[in-house]
Design a protein that fits this description.
single chain; 410 residues; alpha/beta; 6-stranded mixed β-sheet; 17 helices; 6 strands; 8% strand; elongated; ABC-three component systems C-terminal domain-containing protein; ABC-3C_CTD7
Length: 410
């Protein structure tokens, strides 16, 4: 993908992020925002008046900047705002935002406009115009690319100075918005700081996806992309109540890295010895041992992480271990119908494998607060059972206690 394509896509994503942030900021449920209708983004009152207009500029360059003093986009924005004032699209009360993902220099014209009175601003603009005219006069070929660009900017500056009344209103109402981390700002505005990082990510992604998908659908249907605060609040409510958000307490297994040396260090653990008691072929046994070691290690890591973040307590995990033991007992005693001595060693080994695979693969359980498990965080449930088998308080083989004791003696 070319740099220009990356820049364009990043710019659109930045605009959607800003739109989501402004939706969070609306105070009344009847207020709304629009995207690419009046401006990059606009906020509207219930009566239809425009509360604010926003121009968004994004740069992917590490040292990049936006809204430069002699940038065409800056003066074109000022021209459009002047014309909107003249045609009554906006009023002298409409806020005007220049938003960017970069820090705007304190020495920039835009920052000077925000901080100083109009007479001083007008003088600075005139000085800028004169310096650009001098620069243009120094070109031998004024019709070249650089000459044409400067000529266009001079025309826009002249337009602004010629419409002093509207320019003064713009200078009074304009604000800069430098958003280096909009996602963090949105999460703060949503008041979801108490949720886990995984839940916050899912909430943000859900809302961002809803906004972008709805925009594209509306544009494809030749409709304006508009969202009320009420629509946003209803979507947020649905989002917070969805099972995918509720269940996103634990990190996905791919986010917890395990090294080969970590796996090797656990091969003598009791829970591994327990799997070795099962009557299965060596290749399958190796597969189950590796997966179990990974689940066991991830459980230990996540157990510590979750408690340290304060989302769940040590007692919550202890309670879950007790529930796991109860489930193991229920399945074990419903599976073993005869006395142990009535089974052959081969039958006991096969029963143990059935018990193990049911508990690890098929058993459905929930943590506290109805937190469920999916394929990405199943290691928490499995790791809990493996921890119990490592103490050991439970076993897979029906005769696990005797066999482990015999191994210990030998």
């Amino acid at each position: 993908m070319t740099d220009s394509a990356v820049g364009s896509i990043s710019g659109y994503l930045f605009q959607f992020e800003r739109a989501l942030f402004l939706l969070c900021n609306l105070e009344e449920k009847t207020q709304s925002i629009s995207i690419e209708k009046i401006d990059d983004i606009a906020a509207h009152s219930e009566e239809g008046s425009i509360l604010l207009l926003e121009q968004d500029k994004h740069s992917i360059l590490e040292s990049g900047s936006t809204f430069k003093d002699t940038e065409y986009a800056l003066w074109r924005t000022i021209q459009l705002w002047i014309q909107k004032l003249q045609t009554g699209v906006i009023t002298s009360n409409t806020k005007l935002y220049c938003s960017t993902n970069k820090e705007i220099s304190d020495t920039s014209l835009l920052k000077f406009i925000v901080k100083n009175n109009f007479e001083d601003v007008k003088k600075i603009i005139q000085d800028l115009r004169n310096s650009q005219q001098k620069k243009l006069d120094g070109y031998k070929t004024k019709s070249g690319k650089k000459g044409n660009t400067i000529s266009q900017i001079l025309n826009l500056i002249d337009f602004a100075l010629a419409n002093e009344k509207e320019l003064e209103i713009i200078c009074k109402n304009v604000e800069t918005k430098e958003s280096t981390n909009i996602k963090k700002s949105i999460i703060t505005k949503l008041h979801i700081d108490s949720y886990t990082e995984q839940q916050q990510d899912k909430i943000y992604e859900e809302l961002f996806g809803w906004l972008t998908t709805t925009c594209f659908y509306n544009w494809k249907s030749s409709q304006h992309a508009e969202f009320t605060k009420l629509q946003f609040s209803e979507r947020l409510k649905l989002c917070l109540g969805s099972s995918s958000i509720v269940n996103a307490i634990f990190r996905a297994k791919k986010d917890i890295n395990i090294l080969p040396i970590d796996i090797e260090s656990k091969k003598d653990e009791i829970f591994v010895q327990q799997i070795n008691l099962l009557n299965i072929n060596s290749k399958s046994k190796e597969h189950f041992i590796t997966n179990s070691i990974e689940d066991f290690i991830r459980y230990e890591i996540e157990h510590t992480h979750i408690i340290s973040t304060g989302n769940l307590t040590r007692e919550d995990f202890i309670d879950f271990l007790q529930n796991c033991k109860i489930e193991w007992e229920n399945h074990l005693y419903s599976t073993i119908s005869k006395e142990i001595h009535e089974y052959s060693d081969d039958e006991l080994g096969q029963l143990g494998f059935q018990i193990y695979t049911y508990i690890i693969k098929d058993l459905k359980m929930k943590f506290k607060f109805d937190i469920g498990f999916n394929i990405e965080n199943m290691y928490v449930k499995n790791g809990s059972f493996l921890k119990l088998s490592n103490i050991p308080e439970i076993g897979w083989h029906p005769n696990w206690e005797k066999l482990l004791e015999d191994d210990k003696k030998s």
